[in-house]
């Protein structure tokens, strides 16, 4: 078997992150274990991100020398850096999802309502976070 290709690493990152998201979707079954699984998954993605970044060579220095919208475009023109950026999104969105589950448990937000936020966070990151914050605010308002 040859070296890992960027496409193989992309698919592997998705397989890993799905473990964490599935844990969150089923968190009411065993909350502490499944939330810990999702957190560990996010940490594993952060480690992968760090390794990808450290081994990226001089290419990442473009952001230091040209931190503009154009510089970011040059950075992401390279498929290796697109993978790096995508793993960044995967790790952070999953971490946000774990916070949403923990916070929902803390404030007594029903898991059925939380699921919409989780799906949106998984698919659209900040849209899901905003959705959760709105549900959270409504929950606090209702609690008076």
Describe the structure.
This protein has one domain (6-57, 84-143). 81% of the residues lie in helices and 0% in strands. The chain is built from 7 helices and no strands. The N and C termini lie far apart (61 Å). The mean pLDDT is 91.
Give the tally of structural domains: 1
Q: Which structural class fits the helix and strand makeup?
A: mainly alpha
Shape annotation: globular
Low-confidence stretches: none
Number of strands: 0
Instruction: Give the CA-CA distance, first to last residue.
Output: 61 Å
Number of helices: 7
Amount of beta strand: under 5%
* Helix residue percentage: over 70%
Radius of gyration: 18 Å
The main sheet comes to: none
Q: Quote the average pLDDT.
A: 91
Write the H/E string, N to C.
Answer: HHHHHHH
Quick overview:
The protein has 144 residues and is mostly helical.
Write the layout of secondary structure elements.
Blueprint: H1 6-25, H2 31-54, H3 62-65, H4 69-76, H5 79-107, H6 111-124, H7 126-143
Keywords:
144 residues, mainly alpha, 81% helix, globular
